[in-house]
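Q: How would the structure tokens look for this protein?
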Amino acid sequence: MREGVSNKATTLAAGSVVVAIAVLALKAAAWWLTGSVALLADALESVVNVAAAAAALIAVRYSALPADANHPYGHAKAEYFSAVLEGALIIVAALLILNEAWGAFLNPRAPEQAAIGLAVSAVASAANAAWAMLLTRRGRALKSPALLADARHLWSDVVTSVGVIAGVAMVTLTGILWLDPLLAALTAANILFSGFRLLRESLGGLMDEAVPPATMERIRRIVAKEAAGAIEAHDLRSRHAGRFTFLEFHLVVPGAMTVREAHEICDRIEAALKAELETAIITIHVEPEAKAKHEGVPVL
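A: Here is the predicted structure in token form.
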């Protein structure tokens, strides 16, 4: 089943590369037709999209490799490196756009062939939006940080593109030329925000950030319900690694309980947790009642 998930993620990542190249070609054509610095900013972000999509494809393929002697927990964290790279590239693109915007502010000029250029840009934005919707839905289903990072970046690109199209149309209609570099600068600011947020989330994954509080609460309820016969569970810890969730805790059982009985309780807990978190990897350390801390998860 995991191999099927990996194949689906790889196919989507490859599709992202194709879509990114097509959108870049359309946006570059829109800039070439109009000469608008705001549309140039939009095209520069699409250059980042191509690089980021390629990085995501490599990361998804690498993360699908099975565990080995050097990587006994698998290669799932490779996807976070892709997301970090994408965040860094977004920030670089934003700085390049700001530089272009400043030059255009000092020497503003009216866009040419605006109607055709804006129509081409609108087609590119529609393609981006459709692909971002698909990536968001499938990335959540596959629990892929690389695909979700790519989807968030595309949504940011769609929002800025819509604003740029509306702004360039205003420049054409009003003749206020400084609006063009202003829009480019606003686009860069939005991209910067997106890049920093993506970096923060990706670094959280690399730093073994715990599951969200709501997920942890569901885990605690499952352990409390399914551990009948035990005394308590304590030192419950979690971390994410790509689409996998690692859980570990200590399960305190009566001292007279047999190994078989304790193992049956562990099997029951693991089955319930995996029904809730399909890709969970669970480690349970069984302890006698003398080790009870009277804290953590009491058994219902």
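The beta strands are 232-241, 244-253, 280-288, 297-298.

The longest helix spans residues 2-34.

Upvote if useful.
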